[in-house]
Amino acid sequence: MYQVIGSLRTRTFRVLWALEEMGLEYEHIHAPPRSPEILALNPSGKVPAMKVGETVITDSAAILTYLADHHNTLTHPAGTLERARQDAMTGFVLDEMDGVLWMAGKHKFVLPKEKRMPAIMDSLRWEFERSQALFSARFGDGPFIMGDQMTITDIIAAHCGNWAEKFDFPMTDPVWVDYVNRMRARPAFVKLDAG
Predict the structure, then answer these.
(1) pLDDT in tens, 65-80
(2) pTM higher than 0.90
(3) CB of 75 within 8 A of CB of 68?
């Protein structure tokens, strides 16, 4: 059984969502960022962390990749062109969407108050709106980013939609909005979001 350590309202949600989609057993240990429990596992204090036996994996993207590869689900096989396309979209979502939203989070509540720059929010909102259009331009014909197959990239992207909403970042692109709403209607997402 996997042990997932972190608070639900963080990137920990992504890992729990993937585990639910995969139908795998896990134990969720609530621990906020920079808590003693997390610092013992990850010196940066960031969540999530996941224990596989005595081994600790940190970073939600790394954990998702491990789970998908290990269980051969929510991913295309390594070494295929489909996987290369999937990884490219994962990189895009992490760089252009998640990174922008994480910067907003840092300037809203993570950094010490004297280090926050509220004026940066306008620029970040503009950048996120631009990223939605770029996402839509790359989105194919299927219900998921990779067509008919849901992948870990979908979990990361849809979770960014949650963060955007919580940070009051307008979601303006109709393809993006429709996609995020579809993903958030999935039973595994709904189960965790109600928790």
Answers:
(1) 999 999 999 999 999 9
(2) yes
(3) yes
